[in-house]
Amino acid sequence: MNPTPLNSPAKAPARSGLLRFLRSASIFLRGFIEHPAMVASVVPSSQATIDAMLAKVDWSRCRLFVEYGPGVGTFTTRILDLLPPEGRLIAIDTNPRFIEFLKRTIDDPRFEAVLGSAADVESIVREAGHARADYVISGLPFTALPEDVARGIVDATYRVLRDGGAFMTYQFLPTARDLTEARFDRTDRGLAMWNIPPCLLAWGWKDEAAALREAAE
Ligand SMILES: C[S@@+](CC[C@H](N)C(=O)[O-])C[C@H]1O[C@@H](n2cnc3c(N)ncnc32)[C@H](O)[C@@H]1O
């Protein structure tokens, strides 16, 4: 039997996948050591958490997806796997180390990594040439943010979403879920047990009735 050459295309994805994983784990850990309160976890989210959160997305209707606090891209790469060819993903993070890593490792014309705060989502979306977002997912450590900043981010998110769109959060503590329930018209709850530590999930839906009326017209 012929041995597979070292540079064969069959081997490259596995090797580059492992390399990306090792590099991303070390960058994530450095990000945590430098800004423990803002990163808030030493381990990225689990695959089970990612799958559970994204299961409620209607990908056929998704033109703009926004991600807050992507870190090293644990959700980002999966969102890009599922996003339609005409869809766009904007990831916003305050940590330049994470943004530089995402720009260097994700080569996809549908993707834009923005160094900035989720509080500025409306201007970021507008400057990228979009009127509204279909979905916003947040990995932000809401409990570590000043209360007015946290509330401001949830308010700006409500405004930037289209009717029928959703704000999705995953957090160890209930802060993000409580803020979502206070602002959004309907909220679904979930729990990801296979995460370190287990994680509370929430999907806040914006005015689904208006979206249905619009679709019927
Ligand atoms: C717990 S980490 C989430 C990492 C990743 N999404 C995951 O699931 O593994 C929190 C992230 O939020 C970012 N962050 C904190 N405050 C922010 C803000 N106001 N706007 C955007 N990103 C922020 C941090 O830099 C960090 O990347």
Explain how this protein is built.
This protein has a single domain (12-216), classed as Rossmann fold, CATH 3.40.50.150. It is globular and about 50 Å long. It contains nine helices and seven strands; from the N terminus they run αααβαβαβαβαβαββα. The chain has helices at 12-34, 36-39, 47-54, 76-82, 96-105, 121-127, 147-160, 175-183, 208-216, and strands at residues 64-68, 88-93, 111-115, 133-138, 161-171, 186-192, 199-205. The longest helix has 23 residues, at 12-34. α5 links the parallel β2 (88-93) and β3. The N and C termini lie far apart (64 Å). α1 (12-34) runs antiparallel to α5 and α7 (147-160) packs across α8 (175-183). It is of the alpha/beta class and 217 residues long. A seven-stranded mixed sheet has the order 3-2-1-4-5-7-6, sandwiched between helices. S-adenosylmethionine (SAM) binds next to α2 and β2. S-adenosylmethionine binds at residues 38-41, 44-45, 68-71, 74-75, 92-95, 98, 117-119, 139-141.
Write the layout of secondary structure elements.
Blueprint lengths: L11 H23 L1 H4 L7 H8 L9 E5 L7 H7 L5 E6 L2 H10 L5 E5 L5 H7 L5 E6 L8 H14 E11 L3 H9 L2 E7 L6 E7 L2 H9 L1
Parallel strand pairs: 1-2, 1-4, 2-3, 4-5
Antiparallel strand pairs: 5-7, 6-7
Helix pairs in contact: 1-5, 7-8
Bound molecules: S-adenosylmethionine (SAM).
Produce a short descriptive summary.
The chain contains 9 helices and 7 strands. The chain is α/β, with parallel strands linked by helices.
Oligomer: single chain
Structural class: alpha/beta
Strand content: 15-25%
Mean pLDDT: 89
Unique bound compounds:
S-adenosylmethionine
> With helices defined by DSSP (H or I, 4 residues minimum), what is the helix count?
9
Gyration radius over CA? 18 Å
CATH class: Alpha Beta
CA-based shape: globular
Largest sheet: 7 strands, mixed
- The number of E-state strands comes to 7
The figure for the number of domains is 1
What is the fold named in CATH at topology level? Answer: Rossmann fold
Low confidence ranges: 1-13
Helix content: 40-55%
The CATH homologous superfamily is named Vaccinia Virus protein VP39
The sequence of SSEs as H and E is HHHEHEHEHEHEHEEH
Strand sequence of the main sheet, in spatial order?
3-2-1-4-5-7-6
Distance between the termini: 64 Å
